[in-house]
Amino acid sequence: MILSSHRRSISRGGAMDLIFGNVVPLVLGSLGVMVLYQLLQRYRQRAYIQDAVVVITGASSGLGKECARVFHAAGARLILCGRDRARLQELVQELKEVADSKQKTYTPSTVIFDLSDTETVASAAEEILKCHGHVDILINNAGVSYRGTILNTHVDVHKEVMGINYFGPVALTQAILPSMVQRRKGHVAVISSVQGKIAIPFRSAYAASKHATQAYFDCLRAEVEQYGLEVSVISPGYIRTNLSLNAVTGDGSKYGVLDKNTAEGRDPREVAEAVLRAVGRRKKDVLLAGPLPTLAVYIRTLCPQLFFKLMASRARKEQRPKED
Ligand SMILES: NC(=O)C1=CN([C@@H]2O[C@H](COP(=O)(O)OP(=O)(O)OC[C@H]3O[C@@H](n4cnc5c(N)ncnc54)[C@H](OP(=O)(O)O)[C@@H]3O)[C@@H](O)[C@H]2O)C=CC1
Ligand SMILES: CCCCCCCCCCCCCCCC(=O)OCC(=O)COP(=O)(O)O
User: Fold this and answer.
1) From CA 109, how far away is CA 55, in angstroms rounded?
2) Ligand 2 in contact with 302 (CB < 6 A)?
3) Is 206 among the catalytic positions?
4) What residues form the membrane-spanning segments (predicted)?
């Protein structure tokens, strides 16, 4: 009896030795490595953005405006683009007044142009390049959404949405790209959408433009890696902005409604911070969405038949009240 209790205490002692001698140092060591890795990542992210020349399209409102605020606070030399000179100037004034003792910040420049006019996009790109002689990071953010049934949508509306969301960013990217290739340095980011990965009913023009965006920038990433350039496709879910208010409908008129999904969407500031992290960490493809849209993306890939059924039932349900 005494012997067996002695053996038990020896084996308990052995287990304690194992835990304190091996497991605890291993766990603490791993935690330490993780913390160090995180600190290093944060340092690299800060260094990447500080002093970088960052172009943001659609900076006059919503996510673009918040991106301007967070990239400015992170020390970027901003070039803010949009159609509305007065609203961009107001933002520049606001940013000028924000002084941070810890971070060196710069007064942003502005370039005014309409993305749907590809002729002016080329001259706008020249103006952008003249600001600091080069561009480090181009963030293609501007965009417009759409509401309507395919049956009642004029083909010109599809062209309008593709013009702003697809051909505009393509024209701007291609006008700036040669200078990035020449320097063997540069980063092109684009704000796509969950709808660049799945297509939902009554969003044909918008979802098509975002799918095209995803495909174009995936091709670009593959083609420019050899020159040391980075490409990030960022795909958010609903964000609390004016996107639904500004959406176009099938006849080309403005939708003008703040949808419930948009009103209850993520805070644009939070999304802008996630964009800063994604760009700072040179992420190639980021889905910034909740569990349900993320599940929908997986179902579309792994079980397309189920996805198509779900979308058809969604279309029937959404249309019923309007028809009644
Ligand atoms: N809100 C959401 O739920 C989501 C948004 N996104 C994407 O985020 C991006 C930003 O949209 P968000 O901030 O939400 O919406 P907003 O409507 O608030 O902002 C859109 C911006 O795009 C600019 N823009 C629109 N048309 C043109 C044009 N022809 N030429 C130049 N600029 C133009 C607008 O400028 P102006 O002020 O002159 O109209 C505005 O600054 C878009 O690409 C959108 O698809 C992605 C997922 C979800
Ligand atoms: C048996 C399992 C069932 C699981 C159900 C999953 C199906 C859920 C469908 C979810 C659809 C999500 C759509 C998300 C759309 C979105 O976030 O879009 C972002 C935008 O770009 C918003 O633009 P909009 O103009 O549409 O407001």
Assistant:
1) 9
2) no
3) yes
4) 20-40
CB 274 within 8 A of CB 286: yes
Q: Return the sign of the alpha-carbon dihedral for residues 269, 144, 92, 41.
A: positive
Please give the tally of structural domains in the chain: 2
Contacts 24+ apart (CB under 8 A), 15-24: none
What is the residue-wise DSSP string for 57-71? SSTTSHHHHHHHHHH
Q: How many CA atoms within 13 Å lie on the side-chain side of 180?
A: 26
- Parent domain of 324: 292-324
Instruction: Mark whether 227 and 195 lie in a shared domain.
Output: yes
65: its two tokens:
């405006």
Do 254 and 122 share a structural domain?
yes
CA 54–ligand 1 middle distance (angstroms): 18
Q: Residue 49 Cα, ligand 2 centroid: separation in angstroms? A: 32
Tell me, yes or no, whether 118 and 245 share the same domain: yes
Active-site choice (206, 216, 238, 255): 206
Write out residues with Cβ below 6 Å of ligand 1: 58, 60-64, 82-84, 114-116, 141-144, 164, 191, 193, 236, 238-239, 241-243, 246, 262, 265
Write the pLDDT tens digit of every residue in 243-262: 999 999 999 999 999 999 99
Is the pTM of the predicted complex or chain greater than 0.90?
Answer: yes
Is the shortest distance between the CB of 237 and ligand 2 below 6 Å? yes
Model ipTM?
Answer: 0.98
CA distances to 144, 167, 203, 260, 263 from 247, rounded to whole Å, are 6, 18, 10, 14, 14
- Tens-place pLDDT, residues 65-106: 999 999 999 999 999 999 999 999 999 999 999 876 678 999
